[in-house]
Give the backbone structure.
Amino acid sequence: MKRVRITAKMRADIFLRHGGVCHMCSMKVTPGQDWDVSHEIPLEAGGKDDDSNWFVAHRSCHRQHTAKVDMPLIAKVKRVHQKHIGATRPKGTMPGSKNSKWKRKMDGTVVRRNG
């Protein structure tokens, strides 16, 4: 999916729609202060790249939130997706499981699985 390029007019509209309030710390963005357009739900985690998912955030709040919340969430989404499509294999097998090469019979003997 291609990202939308947010123009200066779109940034101004987002700022006015949210009243210039950071959606992370709920404090007002003062004139001259750096701010970003933040996605409430990250794009990599299935969020939309449209005005329903765009919010005002102080640059420092946005960077902290990205590092502590968004990046671990994105990593987990990618791990789950890779596991879902079968791209990753389990690291090890549990002894006695169906994937193990050994099988315990009902009488207690342990034999090698065939096949």
